[in-house]
Every structure is written in C-alpha cells, then in structure tokens.
C-alpha cells in the first residue's frame, strides 16, 4: 500500500536489516547498493564503485533493471516513434561511435546529413531560387530554439538599422495557448515576451489567425504556427495567418515572419495532404522544425530545422569551426553528438520513400478514424476532427462514391492521427459521480497509457483523454483498446459507488504516484514555473501533474531505491499537459 507517501522506504529497509549483534550474516537488502545474484558483493548505487565488476555482470545488472520500464507500444501518450527494424539497428550500432560534428573526419556522414536537409527542403516545397539551409538537432525543441533565435536576431538587426530601441519594450513572440512547452521555453530562455493567443472550443483548441493578428506589433519577432497541436492533433491555419500578416504589412509597413512548428505535421501533412499549403509554399514561412523521432519514424534523439534561404539565417548565429584544419560552420546548440540518428533518418527515407510514408500515415489516420467513430457511438464526445467529413468539392466526392479510395484522408478534416475525447454530456448527466480521469487510471491497470489532460489555458475546465495513433497501434490493437475503454467506462457506470472504485485504484496505480515523482527528478516544478505549464517538463512522454507533486522534499533524487517486480508497466501516472 501507499506507505511511501509517509515513510521513507530506504530508511525502512535499512532499519529492518538483521541486527548484526545476533551474529547473522548481513544479507538484508540495502537500498543504496546493488545486491546482485551474480556472486558479487554489494556495489554502491549512488557513488562510483571503487572496483569494477565483470562486464557480463554489469550488463545483466542494468538489463534487469530495464525490465521495470513500461511497454513502449502501449504508451499512447507519446508521439515518439518506438520501432525500427534490425537493419536500422545495425546501421546505428555500426556508426554509434561517429561524432556528427567532426565534418572533416567523417565526410560521408556529413554528406548524408546534407542530403537529409535537401530531401526535407524539397518535401516542404522550398521555392526555386532559394538556397535552403538546415541542421539536424536532438529534437524539435532544439530546432525551435534555433528558429526562434534566427527570428529574434533578424528583428534586432531590423530595429537597429531603423535606429530603434531593441530593449524597451523588447521583443515579443506570438503563438497559441495550445503550444507545446518548447515554444514557451524558447521565449523564457531567450528573453522574448511570450504572447499567448487564447484558444476556445470553437477554434478547436488551436490558435485562430484572426485572434493572433490582434497580438502582433512592431516588436513581434514572428508568429509560431503549430502544424499539429499536441492536444487534439488539429492543424493551425498557416496560409490564413500569412495572408493576415500580408494585410497587416500593407497597413503598417511592419513585416512579420512565420516559423512553423511541424514537430509531427511536417512528417505527416506532405504525405496525407500533399496539396495542402502550409510549408515554404506559404509566403511568410521562413523556417520549419520537425521531429525525426516522431512521424519521421526514427528513434528518440532527432529533430530538424530547415530555413528557406541562407540569407534568413543571421551571420551572428553561425560559428566558424576550425577543426582539424578545415573551416566548417555550425549553428546548433549542442556540439558533439552521435551521427547514428541521422543515418537512421536516411535509412527511413530510402526504405520507405514517399509511398511508404504515405501508406503509414494513411493507415494511422484510418485507425484513428475507426477509434474516433467507435468512441463517438458509445459514451464519448470527440474533440478531434479527423473522422469528420471534409467540405470537399463535388468532383472529389463523386470520385469517392464511384468506388475510389474511401481511405483518402483528404475526404476528412485534416489533422494528425490523434483521437481526443471526453465523456459525453449525457453520460455525465446520468452518472455524475464518475470522474473522467479514473478512466486513465483504470486503463493503466490494463497496461494502456491514455492520458487525461486539461484543455489549454482559459478552457482548462474541459478535460480530454488522448490517444496518439502511431504505426505500432495496429487495427487489432485499436479493437482491443476500444474493448478496454468500454469495459472500464461501464465498470464505472455500474459500480455507482466511488468508494469501491477508489479502493480499486488505491490497490493499483495510485500507489506509485508519489514514488514516480521522485523517480523523475526532472519533473519537479522549478520555482517560478509558468502558471499554466502544469509542471510538465516537456520531455517526451514525461509529464507532471498539478496536484500530484511529490511530498518528498526533493533533496534526494537518488530516492529511487526500491522497486518491485510488479512495478513493471507503471511509470508516470498523472498528466498535466500534452507533450
Ligand atoms: C513534440 C513536440 C515538440 C517538442 O519536440 P521534441 O522533438 O520532443 O523536442 C514541439 N512542438 C510540438 C507541436 C510537438 O508535438
């Protein structure tokens, strides 16, 4: 039971060791050391062991501890891809020891990096005559920092040239309140005022360009438009934003650029909606970021930034590296990192091609529609829209009814393969004792991670459950998931008594809540944290939750000593904000 809430398990175990004066062998578990079954004496956990141990034992020790992690395939909270095949694994393993930044030493790696940028620039429709420039990053977050910095520097240059003050009132940036935490991080880390455009249920929980335009002024370094909100998967309207900024410039003479946060959308829209205008085919889009490790289908650790033309990258951000005799330029935040993720991306490009990516995205969207419709016909109201028919032209509809491809995502509203839903008003009226977040908890007992979030600021009273449909969630698993969601919901209905339910919850998931917070020191809310960030740390799949902060004082990040085998599958319990 939930002893750990009040009692320190490390101390407890220490106190329960056999008492030495009975002359018994001290073989009680010591939570601050690894107690191994490999014939080794205790190995300290939190300080460097003085002697090494056999390699096979070191491997086994860590391997065994990894067994306690949850199953990535059931983690429907995360956009991050979890599966590649053994060819990719082999390529990565063969090249793990290469440093991406050693251009001179590893020219072949560098050539592949450049080709990836070229492929992405083309996919995102860089206009003829532009010389696109870009870089691999560790994820979209780093790419967003760089894209934001380029906008900030260009704004500074523009203001200085006009003889204007760049400090008072200083720069601002505009994006929707539905933004992923990386966007707010950029604003805070780089001292740019963050102007959050409120979102509403009517705006489908994303930024409405007509609202956004009210927030821009002479000191706006740019507008970040999100192609694929983490809340509902909804695309923001890049083209309308650009058109409104054109009108604004015509009226005021102020030229404001757009950066597109295409973390997920930049790897799905080009395939699912090839004619949709959102990328460099929209005039004001100067830069785009994407996560290779989401729908780019590599493993975690890869993002991309592409800038439409090298003239848009301020010289100030480029560092000339004189490394091993030759001059190279760099504009990343990190320096050394493995080349392996970039090779994994090129492997995916070659293995899948446009057709392969299209098939995967269309299958994800079809599975998401299936789940959406099924939920809508049971106890839920859908907050995502990809299953709703689009207002398509008669010609398109005719082709569709003539037996053409009903699976074509263009017949439906555009968006990411995300299913966001809540209990219907009718259900809540009939069973007012039911709390939606219990569904998250009960699904967790069955192994599924389906987070329950509050909607963005100003509409946060709306709670939504969310499933990200990745390629690992097959139609069979969708059916299984639906069965479990219905079963769990009906059990809440029938039980009728919260006390029975709460007892069930306490016996399972809830037990680990506080331990979990301690286990992930990065989740602790830093002081002065932005009020609506809900303590989320922004790393993929790691979420904090308001009201579920650890009761430990946080001075011992090492307090992760005691795990039991039945912790497997239990990770973070609460979710504050989608990542
Ligand atoms: C995931 C995500 C990010 C952050 O990307 P990382 O690759 O995890 O750093 C930013 N914006 C959006 C819309 C996202 O979905």
Structural write-up:
With 579 residues, the protein is α/β, with parallel strands linked by helices. Among the domains are: 2-72, no CATH class; 364-567, Aspartate Aminotransferase, domain 1 (Alpha-Beta Complex), CATH 3.90.1150.160. The protein has helices at residues 9-15, 55-66, 86-95, 107-123, 140-161, 181-189, 209-212, 238-252, 269-272, 340-376, 394-401, 425-430, 437-445, 475-495, 498-507, 513-519; strands spanning 33-34, 43-44, 133-137, 172-176, 193-197, 220-226, 258-261, 285-291, 303-307, 319-323, 326-330, 380-382, 418-423, 452-454, 463-468. It has a seven-stranded mixed β-sheet with strand order 3-9-8-7-6-4-5, with helices on both faces. Strand 1 and strand 2 form a beta hairpin. Helix 4 packs parallel to helix 10 (340-376) and helix 13 crosses helix 14. The longest helix has 37 residues, at 340-376. The structure holds pyridoxal-5'-phosphate. Pyridoxal-5'-phosphate is lined by residues 79, 139-141, 180, 182, 226, 228, 230, 261, 263-264, 291, 303, 540, 579.
Which helices and strands occur, and which strands form pairs?
Elements: H1 9-15, E1 33-34, E2 43-44, H2 55-66, H3 86-95, H4 107-123, E3 133-137, H5 140-161, E4 172-176, H6 181-189, E5 193-197, H7 209-212, E6 220-226, H8 238-252, E7 258-261, H9 269-272, E8 285-291, E9 303-307, E10 319-323, E11 326-330, H10 340-376, E12 380-382, H11 394-401, E13 418-423, H12 425-430, H13 437-445, E14 452-454, E15 463-468, H14 475-495, H15 498-507, H16 513-519
Parallel strand pairs: 4-5, 4-6, 6-7, 7-8
Antiparallel strand pairs: 1-2, 3-9, 8-9, 10-11, 12-13, 13-15, 14-15
């Amino acid at each position: 039971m939930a002893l750990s809430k009040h009692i320190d398990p490390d101390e407890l175990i220490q106190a329960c060791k056999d008492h030495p004066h009975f002359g018994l062998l001290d073989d009680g578990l010591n939570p601050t050391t690894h107690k191994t079954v490999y014939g080794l004496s205790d190995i300290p956990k939190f300080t460097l062991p003085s002697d090494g141990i056999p390699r096979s034992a070191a491997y086994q020790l860590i391997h065994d501890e990894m067994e306690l992690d949850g199953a990535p395939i059931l983690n429907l909270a995360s956009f991050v891809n979890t599966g590649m095949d053994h060819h990719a694994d082999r390529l990565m393993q063969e090249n793990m020891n290469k440093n991406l930044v050693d251009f001179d030493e590893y020219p072949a790696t560098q050539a592949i990096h450049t080709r990836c940028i070229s492929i992405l620039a083309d996919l995102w429709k860089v206009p003829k005559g532009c010389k696109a420039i870009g870089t691999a990053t560790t994820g979209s977050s780093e790419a967003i920092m760089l894209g934001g910095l380029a906008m900030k520097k260009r704004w500074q240059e523009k203001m200085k040239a006009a003889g204007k003050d760049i400090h008072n009132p200083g720069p601002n940036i505009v994006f929707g309140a539905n933004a992923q935490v990386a966007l707010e991080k950029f604003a805070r880390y780089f001292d740019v005022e963050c102007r959050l455009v409120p979102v509403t249920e009517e705006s489908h929980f994303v930024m409405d360009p007509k609202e956004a335009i009210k927030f821009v002024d002479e000191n706006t370094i740019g507008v970040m438009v999100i192609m694929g909100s983490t809340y509902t998967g909804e695309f923001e309207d890049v083209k309308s934003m650009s058109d409104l900024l054109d009108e604004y410039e015509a009226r005021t003479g102020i030229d404001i650029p757009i950066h597109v946060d295409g973390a997920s959308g930049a790897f799905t829209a080009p395939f699912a909606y090839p004619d949709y205008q959102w990328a460099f085919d929209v005039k004001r889009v100067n830069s785009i970021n994407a996560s290779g490790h989401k729908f780019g289908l590599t493993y975690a650790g890869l993002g991309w930034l592409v800038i439409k033309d090298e003239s848009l990258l301020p010289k100030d951000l480029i560092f000339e590296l004189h490394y091993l005799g030759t001059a190279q330029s760099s504009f990343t935040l990190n320096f050394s990192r493995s080349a392996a993720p970039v090779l994994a991306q090129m492997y995916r490009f070659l293995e899948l091609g446009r057709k392969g990516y299209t098939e995967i995205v269309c299958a994800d969207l079809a599975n998401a529609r299936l789940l959406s419709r099924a939920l809508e016909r049971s106890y839920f109201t859908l907050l995502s829209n990809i299953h709703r028919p689009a207002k398509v032209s008669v010609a398109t509809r005719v082709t569709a009814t003539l037996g053409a491809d009903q699976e074509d995502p263009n017949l439906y509203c555009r968006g990411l393969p995300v299913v966001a839903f809540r209990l219907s008003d009718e259900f809540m009226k009939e069973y007012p004792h039911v709390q939606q977040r219990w569904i998250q908890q009960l699904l967790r007992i069955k192994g599924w991670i389906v987070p329950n979030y509050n909607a963005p600021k100003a509409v946060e009273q709306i709670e939504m459950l969310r499933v990200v449909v990745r390629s690992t969630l097959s139609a069979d698993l969708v059916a299984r998931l639906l069965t479990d969601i219905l079963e769990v919901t009906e059990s809440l209905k029938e039980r009728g008594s919260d006390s029975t339910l709460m007892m069930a919850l306490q016996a399972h998931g809830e037990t680990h809540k506080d331990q979990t917070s301690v286990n992930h020191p990065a989740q602790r809310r830093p002081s002065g944290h932005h009020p609506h960030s809900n303590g989320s740390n922004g790393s993929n799949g790691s979420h904090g939750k308001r009201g579920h902060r650890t009761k430990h004082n946080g001075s011992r990040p090492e307090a992760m000593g005691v795990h039991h085998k039945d912790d497997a599958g239990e990770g973070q319990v609460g979710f504050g904000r989608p990542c």
